[in-house]
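In this supplementary section we document a worked example of the pipeline. Step one takes a protein sequence of length 73 as its only input; no multiple sequence alignment statistics are reported here. Step two produces a three-dimensional model, which step three serialises into structure tokens for compact storage. The input and output of this example are shown verbatim.
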Amino acid sequence: MNTFLIIDIGTSSMRGILFDKKGKRLFKDQLSYQPEYHKDGGVLQDAHVFYNHCLNINKKNVQTLLIKTDIKL
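The serialised model returned by step three reads:
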């Protein structure tokens, strides 16, 4: 099964959406985080939060893919 995982990293959340080759959405997950907003208009986010959220989204998408496709590891 050909699938595509889209990761959308926004200012206050990260989203992962898994699609099959026909464009059907198989799974969607969104995790929020709290960036630091500075008076000068800058926004700061801990890179470890991005990394951990991306790992968690990928794990959930792989688990979903394994369930929906009966792939055995």
